[in-house]
Automatic annotation (TrEMBL), chain A:
Protein localization: Cell membrane
Keywords: Cell membrane, Membrane, Transmembrane, Transmembrane helix, Transport
Protein name, entry field: ABC transporter permease
Species name: Halomarina rubra
Annotated PROSITE patterns: ABC_TM1
GO cellular component annotations of the record: plasma membrane
Membrane topology: Multi-pass membrane protein
Residues spanning the membrane: 12-32, 110-129, 141-168, 188-206, 250-271, 277-300
Annotated ranges, domain ABC transmembrane type-1: 102-308
TrEMBL record, chain B:
Description of how the protein assembles with itself and partners: The complex is composed of two ATP-binding proteins (NikD and NikE), two transmembrane proteins (NikB and NikC) and a solute-binding protein (NikA).
SUPFAM superfamilies linked to this entry: P-loop containing nucleoside triphosphate hydrolases
Protein name, per record: Nickel import system ATP-binding protein NikD
Organism ancestry: Archaea, Methanobacteriati, Methanobacteriota, Stenosarchaea group, Halobacteria
Record InterPro entries: AAA+_ATPase, ABC_Ni/Peptide_Import, ABC_transporter-like_ATP-bd, ABC_transporter-like_CS, Oligopep_ABC_C, P-loop_NTPase
Domain ABC transporter: residue ranges: 7-308
One of the record's GO cellular component terms: plasma membrane
Any GO molecular function: ATP binding
Length: 324, 395
């Protein structure tokens, strides 16, 4: 069976996880007062109509008069067939809103994620290689600065300096520029920079501690005794065992950043991505959209955790899913 | 045995900067290893023998470690190779033909010392490993001087197959294809007695037993046919039956490959089995040295005698030697062993470690009782002990 079977079952498991989350959200949502119904009733009352009648009408249009079980089944099949409902805010299907926002989020998220997962471990390794020296302290100091300063605040400061004062980067995000162009790179530079400095600190720190454990390991001494060069020892013999515990931290931290910081950064820089969409949806009480990105993040979290488990077996052959 | 040693260690000192102060792990020791012979360094845990063995090719982490002294490696092939690769580092002692003047280079960057050339080719010389920079030292490590370590459980990287790790060792020193390197790895695994070597090559270290891992380590050490193998307690972590197998394997391989072995151990039983010559170390200093017969038949230093008495049936098996090692950050005056020595007199607590008194050509001992005006039979308990000749090692 082996790894293939394990992955198959884990993917199947993601469906179960989403089903549980979908069910819980559905029950909570049907218990909560529906803002759309309330709005229709208020409007009817203001225009002198019968609010009860208006309520009835809107319930019928939205299918809320059907029995609970039927609505639940309809809703669940909708989730799995990518029919996530109607966004009252944007007047379009929720899937369309989510995918459109995703298009902008991906443009800066993929670069900063890649930068963080390559630079973070390298910075940690660099620090560990010269532990307690001034190099270590400088590297630690810089990354801790990025870790400590709130992303949105740092973003505003940078935007003021480089956008307003120096005019090197555009202040307003322009959705019309092509994805692969200098103009796009220019306007995405600051958000990427802010997110990388914010995320690299924690990863660098874990990587520093983990790799310093291996810097003086017996097998590193063996490699040295074989005549292996310093840099090859770092790259081959230290980095690899370090990545095993580090990958757990990375997945957790990156997910937290995705959900939390992206939102603030998108608002500061005016990027119409997932973060700003979810923010707008919460303000506008557009429940279908809120549910849409909840589902998206659920998907992201389960897939990331699966990837992390697969990365384990690749990095450390002692971890095996053969008998699971 | 030729008259020039393969490796001549002089005044080897290894210190570590620690929060508690400067720690002197090895306090200036000398020893020689000749081609094809086995030299054992014995001493209790913490006496600095492992650090001494790792100081030869400077495996000790630096900083905080610092190695000084001179480590003359006299393998001609290595001298020629490094002289070719680093022409600026070559120091010529004398003109063609003459080999007598043994001057030392003043420039710290000159680590290849050529003592004699015939028709332009180096015929006598050495590489001073204590001053060789990392870049050049890498060619020696694993190439001419190989290591086998104490704990095979952790000495192999758990992330890579043993084949990958042996191939890496081969390719560090020879420009061969991966296929050829793999072929060599299979032969070596066969040589060290791993059954079904070709199939086991792609197994990971955790799929091998402790004894097999040590065999893999030995195979890895042999990839480039080293002149000197430094084996640091290679059998300590293994159970007794496996120990015997590994010792047998090492002596067979020594015969096959003709390499010198520096064997570090605290186990006198192992010493009796493998050693040609023995160096007894205590707290970073040499207490006594001699051939294996001299050490076992005529132990002359109180410490050596106490160690031997600790062997089962030696009369001290249950009691041991009272006390413990002195603080390495605060070296005491006089003999390092004085505080635990039952024969200690006032003279033992002044000056440095007593100069080595020569008993025979090979046998010398660092103890005040062998200096002029003292009676060494107090220690040896009989009067058949050869009289100390003069009192200093210079005789």
């Amino acid at each position: 069976m082996g790894l293939g079977w394990y992955i198959t079952r884990r993917v199947a498991w993601t469906f179960v996880v989403t089903l549980i989350i979908v069910s819980v959200t559905f029950i909570l949502l049907s218990a909560a007062p529906n803002p759309e119904v309330a709005k229709a009733a208020t409007q009817a009352a203001l225009q002198g109509d019968n609010p009860a009648e208006a309520e009835e009408r809107i319930r019928m249009i939205r299918g809320l008069d059907k029995p609970f079980t039927e609505r639940y089944l309809e809703y669940v099949t909708g989730v799995y067939t990518l029919n996530w409902g109607w966004s009252t805010m944007n007047n379009e299907p929720v899937t369309k809103s989510v995918f459109e926002a995703l298009y902008y989020t991906a443009q800066y998220s993929i670069p900063w994620t890649l930068l963080t997962i390559t630079l973070g471990p390298i910075a940690g390794l660099y620090s560990a290689a010269s532990q307690y020296s001034w190099k270590d302290h400088v590297a630690t100091g810089i990354t801790f600065f990025g870790y400590a300063i709130p992303n949105f605040f740092f973003g505003i400061v940078l935007l003021l300096i480089f956008g307003v004062q120096l005019g090197w980067v555009p202040v307003l995000y322009n959705t019309d520029v092509p994805v692969f162009s200098l103009a796009n790179a220019k306007q995405l530079f600051l958000p990427i920079f802010v997110l990388v400095t914010g995320s690299i600190g924690g990863i660098m720190r874990v990587s520093r501690n983990e790799s310093s454990e291996y810097m003086n390991a017996d097998f590193v001494k063996t490699a040295k005794a074989k005549g292996v060069s310093r840099y090859r020892i770092y790259a081959r013999h230290v980095l690899r065992p370090t990545m095993v515990p580090l990958s757990t931290t990375m997945v957790g931290q990156l997910l937290a950043l995705f959900v939390g910081s992206s939102l603030l950064v998108e608002i500061v820089f005016g990027i119409p991505g997932i973060g700003r969409l979810s923010y707008a949806a919460i303000i506008a009480q557009d429940t279908s959209v809120v549910l849409g990105f909840t589902l998206f993040f659920t998907f992201l979290a389960t897939i990331s955790n699966l990837l992390q488990d697969i990365v384990y077996t690749v990095l450390d052959p002692r971890i095996s899913f053969d008998d699971r | 045995m030729t008259d020039t040693p393969l490796l001549a260690v002089e005044d080897l000192t290894t210190t570590f900067k620690t929060d508690a102060g400067l720690l002197t792990a090895v306090g200036g020791i000398d020893f020689d290893i000749y081609e094809g012979e086995t030299v054992c360094i014995v001493g209790e845990s913490g006496s600095g023998k492992t650090v001494a063995s790792e100081s030869i090719t400077r495996l000790v982490p630096s900083p905080p470690g610092e190695v000084t002294g001179s480590v003359e490696f006299r393998d001609l092939e290595t001298v020629r190779e490094l002289a070719d690769a680093f022409p600026k580092a070559v120091f010529e002692v004398a003109e063609d033909g003459a080999a007598e003047d043994r001057g030392r280079p003043v420039d710290d960057g000159q680590f290849v010392v050529v003592e004699q050339r015939r028709n332009g080719e180096i015929t006598r010389g050495y590489v001073d490993l204590a001053r060789t920079p990392d870049k050049a030292l890498r060619r020696v490590r694993g190439g001419d001087i190989a290591h086998v370590f104490q704990n095979p459980q952790d000495a192999l990287n758990h992330c890579y197959t043993v084949g990958w790790q042996i191939v890496e060792a081969v390719q560090m020193h020879e420009d061969v294809s991966k296929g050829e390197a793999r072929q060599r790895a299979i032969e070596l695994l066969n040589d060290v007695g791993i059954p079904n070597a070709a199939a086991r090559l792609d197994d990971y270290p955790h799929e091998f037993s402790g004894g097999q891992k040590q065999r893999v380590m030995i195979a890895m050490a042999l990839v480039t046919n080293p002149d000197l193998l430094i084996a640091d307690e290679p059998t300590t972590a293994l159970d007794v039956t496996v120990q015997a197998q590994i010792l047998k394997l090492l002596s067979e391989l020594q015969e096959e490959y003709g390499m010198g072995i520096l064997f570090i151990t605290h186990d006198l039983g192992v010493v009796a089995e493998v050693a040609d010559r023995v160096v007894v170390m205590y707290a970073g200093k040499v207490m006594e040295r001699g051939t294996v017969y001299e050490i076992f038949e005529q132990p002359s230093h109180p410490y050596t005698r106490a160690l031997l008495e600790c062997l089962p049936g030696g009369g001290r098996a249950a009691a041991g030697i009272g006390g413990s090692l002195p603080d390495p950050t605060d070296p005491t005056e006089g003999c390092r062993f004085a505080e635990r020595c039952e024969y200690a007199v006032d003279d033992c607590f002044v000056g440095g470690q007593p100069e080595e008194a020569t008993l025979t050509d090979d046998h010398s001992v660092s103890c005040v009782y062998y200096h002029e005006g003292r009676d060494a039979s107090v220690i040896t308990g009989d009067d058949t002990t050869p009289a100390a000749s003069g009192g200093t090692a210079d005789d």
